[in-house]
Amino acid sequence: MLIPRVIPMLLMRNGGLVKTVRFEKAKYVGDPINAVRILNEKEVDEIVFLDIGATPSGIGPDFELLENIASEAFMPFGYGGGINTVAHIKALYSLGVEKIVLNSVVGHNPGFVEQAASIAGSSGVVVSMDVRRNWLGKHSVFTCSGKVDIKRDPVAHAQEMERLGAGELIINSIDHDGMMNGYDLHLIKRMAEAVSIPVVAAGGAGCLEHFREAVMQGAAAVAAGSLFVFHGKHRAVLITYPRHSDLAQLFC
Amino acid sequence: MMNMMKKLGLPARIVSTSREIENADKIILPGVGAFDHGISALTRLDLVEPLKKRVVQDKVPLLGVCLGMQLLAEGSEEGSLRGLDLINGYCVRFESDGESSVRIPHMGWNELSICRENPLMTHLEGCRFYFVHSYHMVCSDMVNVLATAHYGNNFTAAVQCGNVWGVQFHPEKSHRFGMALLVNFARL
Lengths: 252, 188
Hints:
By secondary structure, chain A is α/β, with parallel strands linked by helices. Chain A has helices at residues 32-41, 54-57, 63-70, 86-95, 104-108, 112-120, 154-164, 185-194, 208-216, 226-229, 244-251, and strands at residues 5-13, 16-21, 24-30, 47-51, 77-80, 99-102, 125-133, 139-143, 148-149, 168-173, 199-202, 221-224, 230-231, 236-237. Chain B is built from 6 helices and 11 strands. Chains A and B meet through helix 6 of A and helix 1, strand 5, strand 7 and helix 6 of B.
């Protein structure tokens, strides 16, 4: 059987690794190169790095740092943050980043997904959607690291992204980010039912059982940040990853 | 791929001219993106004939990876252009409806079922490899199928016909398992 992928999703800002709670209070948790080396040794299924400062600062992707990370990444490697031109995509590809994660750019230019897919192929284009519930409990999609509400229902947004050629969706719940109390399962279920491309659940994983819950709702893969960078109730920084045999048992 | 070759200490270079292909002792044909896009890129650089000559006449080992493996076939449902025609077979899309319907693309790690012993896959029992693809090859001659994997149904994960080898997965993204395979290829 196919074991769902379990993906460390690591956030960067100004060249360092950080971890947020509900997209705020970014805490420094270490060096990205060191992290990728540890995750190599742990034979992780895949890694995703998201530079949460790249769009708000207007600086764009840090190609030098990404080149160093990619040269150490002998696993599937996705990157998102500040990608908004075809030149960015070509540069990332030549560095060895084979999954291009788009987020803010598709809020104002959905057609960019189509352009990206024509270069990278659909399977190389991932759209990351940051979703928050309003006070009525209604989901809406946000861009720019959770700062801009594009006032779209995630189902409509996801279906449009699929139609334009996205090969995968990362569904990140802003409300659950860093809380470690489980994914927004209702959201995951809605999204998995809405599209036929793989859906990656993100935001809220605090234990392995949460992975299983998301997969039960239709997630093809699960991503986590805090779970893989914090250890113990005092949230000491320690990069960890479950053993392959434990994951196989979890999902069987 | 170059990052991985460097890590393994295997001398490799990216080539784009027929002259460089003439000098290659072994050739890896990687590739991502669409079938026609891949073949067109080779055609545009005038590499199709030199590549085929080097492989068919000079018997230089060739390893197609992912789209590179699919390009070895006669053609693909994904496009309208002819493939390199080095392996008798055709590439088809996974089924997105019907009984064995699956999410497309297939992205994930699979163990291989190795169909026959071969030097590319020695010591790879129980290894897992990373796949990302929407199409897979159907061989006309099953004897060319080296290994299968399962996604909805069993599909062709690796092929061989003489000195022509192909793997649907990404050895360069498959940790020590992929490293072992690439070292095996270097030793052929």
